[in-house]
Structure formats: C-alpha cells, structure tokens
Amino acid sequence: MTKDELEKQLEYLQNEIARHERQAPTIENIKATSIVYRGKIIDAVSSLDRLLDIYIATYFCDSLDKVKEFSNIILGANRISLDGKRKLFDVLIKIQRPEFGKKVHRSFKKDMNTVMYERNSFAHNLVCTNQDAIDRATTHIGLQKFSANSRIEWYDEEKINSILMTIKKCSTVIIRMTQSRVVVLRPPHYEPKSDSMGS
After folding, report:
1. Which of 82, 96, 136, 176 lies 20 to 30 Å from 126, alpha-carbon distance?
2. How far apart are CA 168 and CA 99, in angstroms?
3. Do the Cβ atoms of 122 and 41 come closer than 8 Å?
C-alpha cells in the first residue's frame, strides 16, 4: 500500500468517525423514542394479557379466591404464552357465545392478530439506526424485522396511537365478555346476611 493510499484510508476513517459523532445525538433520540413507543405497546398488551387471565379464570372458577389463584398460579408467570391464552379464549368464547365473531365482535380475531403481530415486533425487533432512520428521526422509528423477508417497518405517533386503540378495543371486548360470564363472584363460604326482621 502506498503512502497516498494509506493517507486516503486514514482520511476516510476520520471522516466516518466524525460523521458518526455528528449523528450520535440523533441515534440516541431514535433509541429514546423507541423506548417510549415500546413501553406504551408492551404495557398495553400486558394489561390485555391480564384481562385474558381473568376471563379464562372466571370461566373455570366460581369464587373470587379461586379466580385469583387460577389466574396467578396456572395462567400467570408466563406458564401459558399470550398466544396460548388467545387461542384458549377463542375456544371458550365460542362455547359461551357461539355468535361471537360471526354476528357480534366480527373484527375481534383480526384485531387480536394485529395486537399479536405488533407486540412481537416491539418485543423482538431491533430499532433501526441506519441513514434512512436518521433522515426520518423527527417523525418515525423503524423496527428491523429479521426473517426470510427482512424489512424495516416504520412507526410514527399516529400508527402507535392506532395500535393502542386496537389493543383498547380488544381489551374492552374481553372485559365485556368477562362481565357477561360472571355477574357476581361470591367469596368462598358466602352467607347472605339476614335482615333485621328475622327472616
């Protein structure tokens, strides 16, 4: 390698280091935005996951104590995946309400598929920090999907809010189905109090 070639490589490396240093604050901003977006999605899906626990537990249990035990011991602590709970919900809701998904709550299955897809994206994909991501940093974050069809999916605040609304919509359906399943769960050994008239 000649002295000129060596100097050109050194100059190139110095320019790359300088470029990287200029872009470092932008990359940190991208990562910070990613953390906020991930937090919102994961938190909302965690609440939905817990609602599935409660629905499933109220299906099988007839007291508040049993619901709590079943949801914490059997369903909690990642013993059953979110996808497993979603599939169990599908089976149980068809027993409880055969019209579910046909006449009522027709978009629920599609919405839950969206929730699952986006939850997995935010939980498992890397935030993109390439030049395209830097160029879009003021409005979007990109999540790099690694698969046979590797690609970057772009998210802005509007798309995040749309995902959150889909999660809320699914959560509302699960809450309604849980409420319709169990009107009142009584504590074990419940005995109604007699009125003051002695009856």
Report:
1. 82
2. 22
3. yes
Of the candidates 47, 67, 72, 46, the residue with the CA atom closest to the CA atom of residue 57: 67
Looking at residue 149, its amino acid is N
Q: From the CB of residue 120, how many other CB atoms can be counted at a distance below 10 Å?
A: 14
| Count of alpha carbons within 13 angstroms of residue 100, beta-carbon side | 18
Give all strands (DSSP E) within the chain, no chain letters.
126-127, 141-145, 151-155
Q: Give the DSSP per-residue string, 24-40.
A: HHHHHHHHHHHHHHHHH
Cα distance between the two ends of the chain: 105
CA dist 43 and 49 (Å) reads: 10
Look up residue 33 and give its two tokens.
Answer: 């935005």
The model's pLDDT over 50-108, given as tens digits with 9 standing for 90+, comes to 999 999 999 998 888 888 899 988 888 778 899 999 999 999 998 888 888 887 788 99
Residue corresponding to tokens 């390439």: 130
Cβ pair 135, 23 in contact under 8 A:
no
